[in-house]
Amino acid sequence: MLETGWDILFFWVARMVLLGIKLTGQMPFKEVFCHAMVRDAHGRKMSKSLGNVIDPVDVIEGITLDRLQEKLKEGNFDEREIVKAQAGQKKDFPKGIPQCGTDALRFALCAYTSGGRDINLEILRVEGYRKFCNKLWNATKFAMLKLDEGFVPEPSAKPTGQETIVEKWILHKLDVAAADTNKALEERNFMAATTAVYNFWLYELCDVFIEAMKPMTDESASAAVKKSAQNTLYTCLDLGLKLLHPFMPFVTEELWQRLPRRPDDSTKSIMISSYPVKDSAFENSAADRDFDKVFTIIKQSRSLAAQYNVQSNIQIFVSSTSTEEADMITTQTPTISSLIKGCKSVVVTADVPEGCGSVVLSPTLTVHLLVKNLNRAWLT
């Protein structure tokens, strides 16, 4: 495959094809991937006279506005062009360009790439991915604290069958992310690939599972529950970092090197490890449906608490006309409680106390928030 730009297809690529066929009798390449043209945040073509040219090194290492403007004077520009360019720089980068790092820039450019369309490069978005790198670092650091000293993962990543619903759910989401990422890479759809792995890390692993597993790894949890949660967490970190590696090679290598290894795994670098693919052992549509129901309860409980301005001692009651549904939710009350800030209790019951604010989630399921002791004047 040849990677190039749309603007030189005729000048270079067509001639390479013609000469290749003429001299060797065969095509020099079977596929041409045309990347987008990178423009500034306003959609303008980058031009030195406009002062909107962004040096990748400046994004990686960071640069002050004063230094940006000094670099203009180092070129062979007319004084009037320098003044115009400096005005443009001052408008676009009033505080200079913050240090974003190589991984954040690489991820941003991949995330921007869609169907060869032009990229309007916004530094704030690159900076956002730098914060995502920090999120990865902090999440992995916190997760490592949940793995006991001397922790050795199971020889295989395959589920044991003893996992809780939230564990089955996160492994299912990991499988979906792996399938979506591989499909997108095969189609050269880098925006979809980055979206799949980004959403898994940020919205499913960090925001949900790492928080939900806290009760499963505290002192009150049984040894079997704790071990299962630790192995599930390890699998998500190991395969999640591998999924992300092509887009963020440096931070993923650093974090992966800090993880313990499975027995008989002597892989020295994440760069030469096997890339995750869809695994039917992780697929669990039933757990996905069940936990989506649990997460809906969590979101609606948060919404009720915000609506009534209840910030502490939150008491949630869940009622269901389905015995099977009620039994499933009862097993997940610790997870629900851990994912609602300020939650005191979650009770699944048909006998809901008076003085509750309620929201109906389905014909069989309702969530209630106890508001009886709140300021009645405020409620009216």
From TrEMBL:
Residues 1-20 form the signal peptide. One of its GO terms (molecular function) is valine-tRNA ligase activity. It holds the Pfam family Anticodon_1. Keywords: Aminoacyl-tRNA synthetase, ATP-binding, Ligase, Nucleotide-binding, Protein biosynthesis, Signal. One of its GO terms (biological process) is valyl-tRNA aminoacylation. The lineage of its organism: Eukaryota, Fungi, Dikarya, Basidiomycota, Agaricomycotina. Residues 167-315 form the Methionyl/Valyl/Leucyl/Isoleucyl-tRNA synthetase anticodon-binding domain. It is an enzyme of class 6 (ligase). PANTHER family: VALINE--TRNA LIGASE, VALYL-TRNA SYNTHETASES. It comes from Thanatephorus cucumeris (strain AG1-IB / isolate 7/3/14). Its EC number is 6.1.1.9. GO terms for cellular component: cytosol. Belongs to the class-I aminoacyl-tRNA synthetase family. This is valine--tRNA ligase. Residues 1-121 form the Aminoacyl-tRNA synthetase class Ia domain. The gene is VAS1.
